[in-house]
Amino acid sequence: MLRQFGPIGRPAGRALRTLTVLLAALPLLLLPACSSSSDGGGKKGAGGGASTAAPPAPSWARGMKTVAREKLPPEARKTLDLIDKGGPFPYDKDGTVFGNYENRLPKQARGYYHEYTVPTPGSRNRGARRIIAGSHAERFYTSDHYETFEAVVQP
């Protein structure tokens, strides 16, 4: 008995069925990747609940992790309010130039960034939390004394 084979040595019918199954399954494999994108409207699912993700990053924060202002600790929100009002600030070092020596923020000329203390409940000193303010209303939050930063996205 003579069998007809496809180009890779399998019976042609079996290869065709395998290819058909793989092509049919492809959209199902890609579906999870597509469902993780946001709808841009700040809503999730049919219930219409608010999204917990930060709004899209402004151009000055591209490539950085972002945090919505309302997701910051209450002490950080209070510090942001004081910065917006121009003080008064509770610590002598508040408002001093932040050097960005670690280069973790976008590169700017010296004097562009200023630092402000975010009080840490229970801490006997200034603690590790800071808000860094840029000259053009950029705001960055660090909870670990300049090791990592999040760009604060405000409405």
Write up what this structure looks like.
By secondary structure, the chain is an alpha+beta fold. It is built from two helices and eight strands. The strands form two sheets. The protein has a six-stranded mixed beta sheet, covered by helices on one side. Strands 1-2 form a two-stranded antiparallel sheet. β7 (139-142) and β8 form a beta hairpin. Mean pLDDT is 79; it is low at 33-52.
Care to give the gist of this entry?
By secondary structure, this protein is an alpha+beta fold. 23% of the residues lie in helices and 17% in strands. The protein has helices at residues 12-35, 74-85; strands at residues 43-44, 49-50, 66-68, 96-97, 113-117, 130-134, 139-142, 150-153.
